[in-house]
Amino acid sequence: MGLVEHQVAAFLLFLLTGMGAGQRVVTIQKGPLYRVLGSHVTLWCKVSGYQGPAEQTFQWSIYLPSASEREVQIISTADPSFPYAIYTQRVRAQEIYVERVQGDAVLLHITELQDRDAGEYECHTPNTDGRYFGSYSAKTNLTVIADTLSVSMGPQDLIHTEGDAMELTCKVSRSTAQHTHLSVGWYCLRGEHRAEILTLSKDFVVMPGPAYAQRFLAGNVRLDKVGSTSYKLSIAAVEPSDQGQLYCEAAEWIEDPDGTWKDISRKQSERTSLVVTPQDQDLCVGIAATKSNPSEGDTLRLNCTLEAQRSDSRHFQVAWLLNSTEVARIDPRGLLVWKKEYEKRASLGQLHAFKQSNTVYILTIHEVGLEDSGAYHCSVLEVKAPGNFQSIQTNLSSALRINVKPIGLGLHATLISRTATVSYMQSFELICRMSASRPVEELLLSVGWLFQPKPPTDGYQELVHVLPDGTVSWGRAQPRFQGKAQLMKAGAFSRLHIHSAVAGHAGTYQCKVGVWRTLQGQPTVSFTSNAVGINVVPPESKLRVATRENSMEVAGGADASIECRMELPLNNSQLAVSWYYLPPPPEDANPLLIVRASHSGLLEYGAEFSSPTQKSRFLSQRVSRHVFQLRILSASSGDQGQYCCAAEEWCWLEGGWHGLGERWSGRTRLLLKLPESELHLEKANHSILARYGQEVTLGCLLKSTLPPAVRLSATWFHRKEDGHERPLLTLNHDGAIESLQKGLVGRLQLRRPTAGDLSLTLASVQEDDAGTYHCQVQEWQQQGNKDKWELQTWALSGYTQLTTTPPETTVLSRICSSPSLLNFILCLPLVLILLLALAGFCWCFISRKRKKGTIRGDQLMELQGAGGIKQT
Ligand SMILES: *[C@@H]1O[C@H](CO)[C@@H](O)[C@H](O)[C@H]1NC(C)=O
Ligand SMILES: *[C@@H]1O[C@H](CO)[C@@H](O)[C@H](O)[C@H]1NC(C)=O
Ligand SMILES: *[C@@H]1O[C@H](CO)[C@@H](O)[C@H](O)[C@H]1NC(C)=O
Ligand SMILES: *[C@@H]1O[C@H](CO)[C@@H](O)[C@H](O)[C@H]1NC(C)=O
Ligand SMILES: *[C@@H]1O[C@H](CO)[C@@H](O)[C@H](O)[C@H]1NC(C)=O
Ligand SMILES: CC(=O)N[C@H]1CO[C@H](CO)[C@@H](O)[C@@H]1O
């Protein structure tokens, strides 16, 4: 037992300090000693300064308080018969024995102290020396006291989860009269193994067991004295290793007279079994979101919730993961850390995360974007302490799939107009129909109207813009629409109403719809509609012109009036009237402009009618409000053909005159009723071949003689090979000659050798004078009034076909103009010389070989020579 061991240790210490030799000295443990009834008690005794054998004999006796003079022998190391009867039994049963520590030192053991063991103990060593010198025995008193120590701890079964706090209280008391100290300790039994947890020593020092030193230092394990007899063990967080049989043990200590402390009693409490369930399985992590299908721009909240026992006293680090990549974490101290990719948005206030409690962690994403879609997890790490990130356990929530719906997708705008053509001063409306994958009423929409004038200038200009909060702002195109544009928005429609349209409103229109996340900033998505073209046309002319076809016959030289009748009354608009002439076939039927009277009254003659005679003969008149007239004075056969007019209404619009389009009348055929009378003109056709530069006479000859009271007028015509006929020259009945083709002035001459010869001479014929010429001759007679001549009859001459050729050339010039001929002439002398040389050679050869030449050979030679000469 512990008591004994302590005794022995103290004794050995004493022995080592040693003593000098000399005289015999017997020393016994110093008394008085107080020992508890029933305890195992030892008393030490030793001898020194002796002679003789090293192994000395020790004899123990007691003097009982009741008979303090009488020695009662207990035990001897040498003599088994030494004990008195009263001790024989206990000695034999080894309840009392002597333990030899050395040859000269022993311990007396009394295993179970009895009341009758109290008394004065004597240790005696018989003399082994040559003489008696010194002491042979020593005495000490032993008092037996009652064991009053009590240790208790209410029996209980403790079941704790890892990390729980736990307390155990031990009551320790004693009522010993002597001054004693107490020590208290806590132990844990696991099978055979006893682990010391904490002890409070008799000197009031708390010491942890080796396995608990760290937790003791961390304050996790502590022992406090609460009240006079209560000792409390506290464990802040139990661990699975704490599991076992827990008890407390107290010892009562007394200070012996030699100054050593002796535990005189030692007791254990009842045992309490502690079960620690590991907390590995108790951390549940959940994740939840406000909506799993938020739309772009919504606010999304992700809650991480922890379920764990005593969660308040535990320490967690929580992280949000998106597609297994961390977004942010809140560490056990509550510190928030964003991953780099999210720092920017967090600094803009778009992201928020905080620890609401130890078990609720909230991540808020304002203005959620498509990039926030994916699988979210909460990851939780439990650590030992806020400052000690040593992991206890981790757990991961299930995945929460977040699908951010794009709001831009499906955004669409269609621009509609009921009409593409708007009359001047009418109103029109453009409707912008907006649609999206969500009801548009739920969206913050802006609508802009764009306009591009016709003809396009520099692209589209903004006309007006309405922000989601209803703010209207006008754009660059606004001045065109000043006071004329009205905007209405109803649900998914925006209408732009333009009234009193003018030409400046013609062009293309578009609407542009934007979706906004918030009332400020910029649209997230926008869509521009199709373009709608609007054409603004001037008011339609109400003018109607009679389209009936007419035919009229007038006597030659009489005046003709061709009418153009407007069918509808006209107001303040103006009219422009143009008269046209369509020559009779076979001439091309392209209308020739005679004269145009513009809306302002300006007269303009067509190219064919711009000579003074023509101008004076063709007059445009307005004879009444509704009737216009073309007067042709002194109609002649050349005026035959068709006539028509084109009338155009002009009105004053936007500061200018605008023609509203021409209306054509029906045609009026003009015929001259002229008998081809006695006037006999030479009708034979002629052909003339003229070289350039020559002069030709184009015949126009009256076959009969002319009566004196008759005058003639004539007009010559030239029809080119292309069929185009033009008048060349006119002889009026008063003898005046008018050249109708400026280009021919000076080359045409009407010589009129006799009154009936109206032949025309054309000087210096040119290539394009070719064609057919004829004349038309009218006969005039004076009727009553002296100044009034009337056309009587007319006739056409025969046709003269003029062919023009280049002028006659000289031989030299012909040669020079032909390169092959020139070459031939240059080469011929050479050829002749060669031929003569060849002939000479032949002649010499023949005359040498044959003395007599043949006549045939000579003839042949002559013929060849003649042929060559002939060829030139
Ligand atoms: C992890 O959490 C889930 C549910 O959140 C739970 O069922 C599981 O037991 C936990 N695992 C551990 C080791 O705590
Ligand atoms: C998230 O936590 C907050 C605060 O505890 C709570 O008001 C909200 O209802 C929770 N949301 C969800 C989806 O659990
Ligand atoms: C997460 O994963 C989903 C599906 O695989 C993917 O559509 C989404 O874009 C991912 N999100 C991120 C942020 O990587
Ligand atoms: C023309 O006159 C008619 C009848 O007087 C009237 O009804 C109409 O409005 C007028 N038109 C214009 C363009 O002034
Ligand atoms: C003369 O020529 C015209 C047309 O060139 C022809 O119509 C007419 O018959 C001809 N007259 C005679 C007599 O050959
Ligand atoms: C050695 C010693 O101190 N003996 C004492 C034991 O007790 C009695 C009674 O009190 C004393 O008389 C002895 O002197």
UniProtKB/TrEMBL annotation:
Signal peptide feature range: 1-22
Keyword field: Disulfide bond, Immunoglobulin domain, Membrane, Repeat, Signal, Transmembrane, Transmembrane helix
TM annotation in the entry: 821-846
Domain of life, source organism: Eukaryota
Domain Ig-like: 38-143, 147-265, 278-397, 406-528, 539-648, 675-792
Chloroplast recorded as keyword: no
InterPro entries: Ig-like_dom (IPR007110), Ig-like_dom_sf (IPR036179), Ig-like_fold (IPR013783), Ig_sub (IPR003599), Ig_sub2 (IPR003598), Ig_V-set (IPR013106), IgSF_V-set/TM_domain (IPR051102)
CDD domains, sorted: IgV (cd00099)
Protein name: CD101 molecule
Membrane topology: Single-pass type I membrane protein
Keyword Disulfide bond: yes
Subcellular location: Membrane
PANTHER family given in the database record: IG-LIKE DOMAIN-CONTAINING PROTEIN, V-SET AND TRANSMEMBRANE DOMAIN-CONTAINING PROTEIN
Cellular component terms (Gene Ontology): membrane
